[in-house]
Amino acid sequence: MPTRVEVDIQIDRPTDEVFAYLSNFENNPRWQKGMDTCTITSDGEFGVGSTYDQVAHMANRQVLSSFKVIDYQPGRRVKATTTTSSFPITFTRVVDPHEGGSRVRAIIEGDATGFFKLLSPIINVMVRRSIGADYERLKHLLENQPD
Questions:
Q1: What residue numbers bound the domain in which 135 lies?
Q2: Is the pLDDT of residue 103 over 50?
Q3: In the chain, what is the straight-line distance between the N-terminal and C-terminal CA atoms, in Å?
Q4: Distance of CA 93 to the CA centre of its chain
Q5: Which of 5, 17, 24, 123 is spaced 20 to 30 Å from 90 by Cα?
Q6: Using 50, 70 and 90 to split pLDDT, how confident is the model at 124?
Q7: Cβ contacts of 75-82, under 8 Å, gap ≥ 24
Q8: The domain spanning residue 47 has which CATH number?
Q9: Count of structural domains, the chain
Q10: What is the pTM of this model?
């Protein structure tokens, strides 16, 4: 059963600051619960083709994933997809100016395999709750940083 989660949240920080934080995937463990590590694996300037590995845990299982950036519009949009994972996903993060701050929209699409596919209905509920809470955590983190 495929999963699609959309998040739309206002963050009271400048768009360039929010996008810089969101597009640096090594920040993911700071605001995404269940994310253990995230390491950029490609050299050179960040953009389409950049890669990273992450280690997360879900349902008491470790999830090792490799990602590749497939769309990048500096300051506005980043999209990446798994190249290897037991929980394949594609996500898009878009940051737009909104009422003196930033509007962050995220779309996460995935389709579990193996062990996670067996638990698909339960996993879908867990993923939806977790992602919503993650973006609330991101909002709190960024809005409470010193200027």
A1: 3-143
A2: yes
A3: 43
A4: 7
A5: 17
A6: low
A7: 75/15, 75/16, 75/19, 76/15, 76/19, 78/19, 78/22, 78/23, 80/25, 80/52
A8: 3.30.530.20
A9: 1
A10: 0.86
